[in-house]
Amino acid sequence: MNELLDPLLLSRWQFGLTTIYHFLFVPLTIGLVTCTAIFQTAWYRTGKAHYLQLTHFFGKIFLINFAMGVVTGIVQEFQFGMNWSDYSRFVGDIFGAPLALEGLLAFFLEATFIGLWIFGWDRLPKGLHLATIWIVSVGSILSAYFILAANAFMQNPVGYHLNAAKGRAELTDLWAVLTNKVALAAFPHTIFGCFMVSAGLIIAVAAWHLSRNNHLETMRPALTFGLWLMVGAGIGTVLSGDQLGLAMVETQPMKMAAAEALYKTSTGADASFSIFTLGTPDGVHELFSIRVPYLLSFLSTHSLNGTVEGINDLQAQYTQLYGPGDYTPTIWITYWAFRWMIGLGMLHVAIAVVGLWLTRKGRTPTRAWQWKIAIWAMPLSLLAMIVGWIFTEMGRQPWIVFSLMKTADGVSPGTTGIEVLISLVAFTAIYGTLAVVEFKLIKRAAQKGPEPIEKHLDDAGEPIPVATVY
Amino acid sequence: MDLAVLWFGIVAFFFVGYFVLDGFDFGVGMALPFLGRDDVDRRVMINTIGPVWDLNETWVIVGGAALFAAFPEWYATLFSGFYLALLLILLALIVRGVSFEYRHQRAGARWKKWFDGMIIVGSAVPAFLWGVAFANIVQGVALNANHDYTGTLFDLLNGYAIVGGLTTLLLFFTHGVVFISLKTDGDLRVRARRLAARSGAVAIVVAAVFLGWTAISHFSPVFLALAIFAAVALVASWIANLRGAEGWSFGFMAATIALAVVSLFAALFPDVMPSSPNPENSLTIANASSSQTTLTIMTWVAAIFLPLILVYQGFTYWIFRKRVTRDHIPQEAPEAGGTDDTQQPVTA
């Protein structure tokens, strides 16, 4: 019973669940708003009707998704204080600044200009109205940057000194915090990932309609757009992921060792990368494995003869540095999350490349299973993103701020297990219910397809007023 | 000037912005069952805040982040201490926000009724609980040496705090109803004026009790002066409403809320979270604030971006200054075969 009511364990579950849930909406918001802006720009420049239809169509899906992103985002900010008050006290001097910057520079922009975009079709000049959606896009990307800079401090603390009298870390160099090497690599990696997720949605929706021979004039260009975006964003994700991997090896070697479940320090061919491994549940003993020699060495150091430190050595090293304790993350989670992230990402790019081939020069796939793969596999890009975050955050454990504070020391001392249990149950219930409604609404809007152009433009070609949306 | 004191003022400014702006959103939500005679009425009401509720709500997000950055100790103590109260506020804000977006996605009456209910509850709960929270902050709560709150949710629901909660509930309710009279036309506008006259009268009485109670327990000339100004503005708003001066009534109501928030911060000064009964555990501006480095940087950021933010938010309000009427609400096709005409735009 006591273990069930452990505020630390419950707070971790709550933070994990609410963050993953919040992050179901973030990538779609960031990616889809930019895609919508691109469609609207294409309409603005060419005047072609189908671009405007696509703007409204994906804009609507984006908006259903946006409200959830906003309200679940408030939970994220409040939780640091509610469940992790000692963490907040310890890092607030540094961690609060990027959050406040995020609010002042990004959230206000997003929230204000999204209202202008939704309701402003006929009230703003066309160019200005186009600018509003781009401002929302810039705002959402900026917000990602600041929150990733805050997160990067937890992975690789920089730009601070410890104030022993106050018992906290204090900011010495904001520029160092904002240009943290982990943030600089994680930012493009995340943004490209967001575009992959959005591309996945666009491809799936377009494929669903095209396989039924519906909305060809809008969905065909949408499919092509989505496929190219998936390939482009996929390449960007791989390249930035490579950089992030190097930064990780340098700053958190334990995380890389945990990603590979590498217990012994290995060099060269021995530093192999296992694509698939069956082992004992604790991950210590290997039963079966498919391995690529040198690959781990190359990923970690960009050299075939590099040395990758193993968990056992790192554990010994950390015990000396930070005192007795277990410094190993939960291996089966990091190992499999890392593989699912990479595997799914690669799979999506591969499917998109095949898709481009099948649809080259106006060709259309004729086989039902080909469409089915596009419809069912693409949404999994969201899963790739989620397991990526699970890897990043679980791989940081037992630290809440690497090398400075353990997760167990960050939890709110005054908050009881009962309180956290109540909130965990409440969030789970409400989030679960809303997820069902949200999914049904998005599915409905997506399956309905784009509206005819007469719904958006009058006879003179001017936008029809949007007097009321709600 | 002491930057921590300046940030005490900036935090106050964010809460003023939040309560003045989201305050009328809460009021519009709470007024749905009182003024919305049919679905068209209710849609008119929701559309008056349609383009702005999101940016209004963002004030609390930015305010919370400013609190975190400038006063980490205050943020940590307040948010962990008022855990269940804040949980209720969060849940309410979640269901309210998504209900605005979900409500119009389908035409069915049951569907809409369900989300109307969520909007009403989602508006009333925070309107009440924010008052409870602020009354408790001013009154002082039990803190230990680590500045952790040692009481429970039920300790927060004391008599003084409940009067504080009712005060904000009634102020926000009236604020929203006056906003509806300012932003709609026809029958709804007339009924909103009448309702504001009644709810305003109740608000005046309850606010007077809260003011008197606060003045007795936290007497300071600055607080009293500000609180009296707030009271005068409240009465002025009520009179302006009776005389049909909707703009003035709304302006005075905004001033009432702003002055009330400022007066509560003045009553706090120089504490940020007084501890009662152990005053030596109190959080003050001095012991709760961030380092000079952080405050200096944040001051620059605020100095550059706050004016810009005010300009573009003002621009939004100016763009959407027109009244929303029943004529603006498109006829809704009954739901059949998955068609959804609720977003059908209409020529004004």
Oligomerization state? heterodimer
Main sheet of chain B: which strands, in order across? 1-2
Secondary-structure class of chain B: mainly alpha
Strand content of chain A is 5-15%
- Summarize the helix and strand pattern of chain B as letters: HHHHHHHHHHHEEHH
Q: Characterize the overall form of chain B.
A: globular
Distance between the termini of chain A: 47 Å
Low-confidence segments of chain B: 336-348
Task: Provide the structure class of chain A.
Answer: mainly alpha
**Judging from the principal axes of the Cα atoms, what is the shape of chain A?**
globular
What would you note in describing this structure?
The complex is a heterodimer of chains A (470) and B (348). Chain A is mainly α and 470 residues long. Chain A is built from 15 helices and eight strands. Chain A has helices spanning 7-46, 49-83, 85-119, 126-155, 174-178, 181-211, 216-251, 253-260, 295-301, 311-322, 331-358, 368-377, 381-394, 407-410, 417-448; strands at 160-163, 168-171, 266-267, 273-279, 286-292, 307-308, 399-401, 405-406. Chain A is globular, with a radius of gyration of 24 Å. With 348 residues, chain B is an all-alpha fold. Helix content of chain B is 75%, strand content 1%. Chain B is built from 13 helices and two strands, in the order H-H-H-H-H-H-H-H-H-H-H-E-E-H-H. Chain B has helices spanning 3-35, 39-49, 53-70, 72-81, 83-103, 109-139, 153-156, 159-183, 187-217, 221-242, 246-268, 285-288, 292-319, and strands at residues 271-273, 283-284. A two-stranded antiparallel sheet of chain B has the order 1-2. Mean pLDDT of chain B is 89; it is low at 336-348. At the A-B interface, helix 2, helix 3, strand 2 and helix 15 of A face helix 2, helix 3, helix 4, helix 5 and helix 13 of B.
